[in-house]
Predict the 3D structure of the following.
Amino acid sequence: MTAGKRPADVELTVRCDCGFEARGTAQSIVPIIQRHGRETHNMKVTREQALAMTRPA
Ligand SMILES: [Zn+2]
């Protein structure tokens, strides 16, 4: 095993059009984005849509 980061451990950031920003690994950021979409925009966000909104941190 190398010390390299697994893809699941890569930090991602997201910035919503409304100004909302979040940061975390794919596993942690997806539910944050989904909750933001539901609570702030009344939108259902799939995992794929959430990940598509992210950028590498
Ligand atoms: Zn938003």
Summary: The pocket of zinc ion is lined by residues 16, 18, 20, 36, 40-41 (CB under 6 Å). Residues 10-56 form one domain. Strands lie at 11-15, 21-25, 54-56.
